[in-house]
Amino acid sequence: MGPLLSFKEKYLARVLSGEKRVTIRLGTLRPRFQLVYIACCGMLYGEAVITKVEYIRLRDLGEDVLREEGFRDLDEALSELRELYPRIELGDVVSVIRFSLVRRYENPIHISAIKRT
């Protein structure tokens, strides 16, 4: 996992408010950076620190993680994750990435800005 933590537009407000502090991603992701940019739709909206990464089978996600992610239950999580990962199954390993927003940009920055530095 690189320097970006990308989100769908529908989750961005919750991320930027600090309400959403966990994300579930398919596979065993090993972040190379602790400080990452919050990205959405080709723009950077702030910076976050990755505080913890756990690896678990999707079917074994606890209710606490599901609630923190914004899901009512595992079925809702699976449905949403299949929009991103059409072949995801309950037996697949996912990365539960916990993060803390440390800086919100007053104005979004185009993603190409980080390629120049």
Order of strands in the sheet with the most strands?
Answer: 1-3-4-5-2
Separation of the first and last Cα atoms = 19 Å
Q: Helix and strand succession?
A: EHEEEHHEH
Report the average pLDDT across residues.
93
Largest sheet: 5 strands, mixed
Radius of gyration: 14 Å
Q: What is the helix fraction of residues, given as a range?
A: 25-40%
Q: Ranges with pLDDT <50 over ≥5 residues?
A: none
Instruction: Give the beta-strand count.
Output: 5
Beta fraction of the residues? 35-45%
Coarse structural class: alpha+beta
**Separate helix tally:** 4
Task: Name the overall outline.
Answer: globular
What does this structure look like?
This protein is α+β, with helices and mostly antiparallel strands. The chain has four helices and five strands, in the order βαβββααβα. The chain has helices at 9-17, 63-69, 74-84, 113-116; strands at residues 4-6, 22-26, 35-40, 43-57, 93-110. A five-stranded mixed beta sheet has the order 1-3-4-5-2. The mean pLDDT is 93.
Task: Describe the structure concisely.
With 117 residues, the protein is of the alpha+beta class. It has helices spanning 9-17, 63-69, 74-84, 113-116; strands at 4-6, 22-26, 35-40, 43-57, 93-110. The protein has four helices and five strands.
Structure keywords:
117 residues, five-stranded mixed beta sheet
Q: What is the topological layout?
A:
Elements lengths: L3 E3 L2 H9 L4 E5 L8 E6 L2 E15 L5 H7 L4 H11 L8 E18 L2 H4 L1
Parallel strand pairs: 1-3
Antiparallel strand pairs: 2-5, 3-4, 4-5
